[in-house]
């Protein structure tokens, strides 16, 4: 059986998602493989979980957006502990697996996979929120063949994943040196990497990253839990929090109208 390392970051209040994630993973995720969980956390309870298949590592919580912006730094800096893994897969803390998933469907014949962003898979490439700052290493022009992928569920053969992590680390460090933070942080850099290495990626449908607070009319395979139901995301900044709640309010209005139409 292939050995798969699950990369999971849970600093600050994100530890609250662990139990649901782990239970659903054990039930539905890659039952055709040996799973090893690599936790990066500052939570005492999770740090004491270390076992034969769970490896907990201390990671200091940082001010937003650094926990997401620097996640590939964490993976690359810990590369030695992954040396026995065949594959590495990063999972956002708030994912819940709803249906059985096999290794083959993630990768097909490719060494890596990414997932279409659920907020943009139906939109024209003209609306993709790529990094527009030409001085950023994440800068990317839109084209008719563009895709926009989310940052919350991706993976690859260990060698490929760590190579990507190193390149993203170098690019993000260069931006920081120049006083630049890409619009969507690591996701902006990840999209640039996917665009430049498209032939290496199997692109999964948005069913593998289905937000709990959206109605997409597609199959739900992996649910992205609504963080705001678990803790307030004010830590991401007042503007982000305000925008998030406005968009959530708009979605609720649309859903109410759809329900009335159905009646």
Automatic annotation (TrEMBL):
Cofactors required: Mn(2+)
Gene Ontology terms describing biological process: carbohydrate metabolic process
Gene Ontology molecular-function annotations: hexosyltransferase activity
Entry keyword set: Glycosyltransferase, Transferase
Gene Ontology cellular component annotations, sorted alphabetically: membrane
Domain of life, per lineage: Bacteria
Family according to the record: Belongs to the glycosyltransferase 6 family.
Database matches in PANTHER family: GLYCOSYLTRANSFERASE-RELATED (PTHR10462), HISTO-BLOOD GROUP ABO SYSTEM TRANSFERASE 1-LIKE (PTHR10462:SF53)
Name the record gives this protein: Glycosyl transferase family 6
Organism of provenance: Calditerrivibrio nitroreducens (strain DSM 19672 / NBRC 101217 / Yu37-1)
